[in-house]
């Protein structure tokens, strides 16, 4: 797990995207540090692919800014894009080329010099377990190996940030395990964002998770924080008239808080210091109008469903894909 002192590789600030009148990504801000693997979750149509396409410079934002290793993607797209590797949902493979030919082609697209290419290709193949199939036609490889080629093309130019959109979809369980191990290894050197629907994948691969719903980020925290939810050292509370987060944080026993829509909060607490009684007292004396207080004994799936079934928009709108 990278520390807070690891360099920042991605800084996304107040990013939004509209299609006609419809806001599909709404004021999203987050950061990524070197070595970190970030899982990007959300139901269909939440806005994950749209966000990823903006991060990779394939779609212009309606608002907001994106900095890759301190370079502004909108002001200096060429330099910023050189620091990103992208595996889209449908890998852009040329099946009639061999693995080596294809990686050479992709390297040239990334403006790599002829002299730098052989070492870079060898390195990408080594990292992705492709050393023995360099001369094979991509079309003749198994789906798992084709996915490795997809990842190799995303890292051949040694980018700082690697973005993988649903990298294990359609693979068999053994291939899934291999690709997850590979992603974990990539995280040591690069920063990685993976978009996925598969909740156990997030647990096994990611350091941090972000959940998107109706274009907004509704959860952003470490896997440890997620696991705390699952262990149950957490309370779900609802307040009609909530105070500042700092006031909640001062209550004895509270270790951290996630704010949810509708005045709801997940309150994490240290083992053996359940702050329920203190919360009830504080809510009563502070006029916070407590309407919900439940232990959060949730599975990852429960948490996901809880966060992505509330309407987070001021007025309901069509989010059908
Ligand atoms: N080119 C477009 N024109 C209009 N609406 C679009 C366009 N592309 C995406 N959308 C809409 O934007 C919303 C977000 O889509 P997006 O593909 O980003 O979601 P997602 O979270 O990646 O979903 P999935 O998991 O199904 O890939 C959806 O409601 C979709 O219909």
From TrEMBL:
<keyword id="KW-1003">Cell membrane</keyword>
<dbReference type="GO" id="GO:0005524">
    <property type="term" value="F:ATP binding"/>
</dbReference>
<keyword id="KW-0547">Nucleotide-binding</keyword>
<dbReference type="InterPro" id="IPR003593">
    <property type="entry name" value="AAA+_ATPase"/>
</dbReference>
<keyword id="KW-0472">Membrane</keyword>
<keyword id="KW-0813">Transport</keyword>
<protein>
    <submittedName>
        <fullName>ABC-2 type transport system ATP-binding protein</fullName>
    </submittedName>
</protein>
<dbReference type="InterPro" id="IPR003439">
    <property type="entry name" value="ABC_transporter-like_ATP-bd"/>
</dbReference>
<dbReference type="Pfam" id="PF00005">
    <property type="entry name" value="ABC_tran"/>
</dbReference>
<dbReference type="Pfam" id="PF13732">
    <property type="entry name" value="DrrA1-3_C"/>
</dbReference>
<comment type="similarity">
    <text>Belongs to the ABC transporter superfamily.</text>
</comment>
<dbReference type="InterPro" id="IPR027417">
    <property type="entry name" value="P-loop_NTPase"/>
</dbReference>
<feature type="domain" description="ABC transporter">
    <location>
        <begin position="10"/>
        <end position="239"/>
    </location>
</feature>
<dbReference type="InterPro" id="IPR025302">
    <property type="entry name" value="DrrA1/2-like_C"/>
</dbReference>
<dbReference type="GO" id="GO:0016887">
    <property type="term" value="F:ATP hydrolysis activity"/>
</dbReference>
<keyword id="KW-0067">ATP-binding</keyword>
């Amino acid at each position: 797990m990278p520390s807070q002192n690891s360099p920042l590789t991605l800084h996304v600030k107040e990013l939004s995207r509209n299609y006609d009148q419809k806001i599909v990504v709404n004021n999203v801000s987050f950061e990524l540090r070197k070595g970190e693997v970030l899982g990007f979750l959300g139901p269909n149509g939440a806005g994950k692919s749209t966000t990823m396409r903006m991060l990779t410079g394939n779609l212009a934002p309606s608002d907001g800014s994106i900095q890759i290793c301190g370079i502004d993607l909108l002001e200096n797209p060429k330099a910023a894009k050189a620091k990103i590797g992208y595996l889209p949902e449908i890998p852009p493979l040329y099946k009639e080329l061999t693995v080596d030919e294809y990686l050479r082609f992709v390297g040239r697209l990334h403006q790599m010099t002829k002299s730098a290419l052989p070492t870079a290709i060898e390195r990408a193949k080594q990292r992705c377990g492709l050393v023995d199939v360099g001369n094979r036609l991509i079309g003749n490889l198994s789906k798992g190996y084709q996915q490795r080629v997809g990842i190799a093309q995303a890292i051949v130019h040694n980018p700082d940030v690697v973005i993988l959109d649903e990298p294990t979809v359609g693979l068999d369980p053994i291939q899934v395990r291999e690709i997850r191990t590979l992603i974990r290894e990539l995280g040591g050197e690069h920063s990685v964002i993976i978009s996925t629907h598969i909740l156990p994948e997030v647990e096994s691969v990611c350091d941090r998770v972000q959940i998107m719903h109706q274009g907004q980020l509704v959860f952003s925290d470490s896997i440890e924080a997620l696991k705390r939810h699952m262990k149950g050292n957490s309370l779900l509370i609802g307040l009609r008239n909530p105070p500042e987060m700092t006031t909640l944080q001062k209550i004895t026993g509270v270790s951290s808080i996630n704010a949810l829509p509708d005045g709801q909060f997940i309150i994490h607490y240290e083992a053996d210091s359940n702050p329920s009684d203190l919360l009830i007292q504080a809510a009563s004396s502070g006029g916070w109008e407590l309407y919900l207080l439940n232990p959060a004994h949730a599975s990852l799936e429960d948490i996901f469903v809880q966060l992505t079934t509330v309407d987070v928009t001021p007025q309901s709108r069509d989010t059908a894909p």
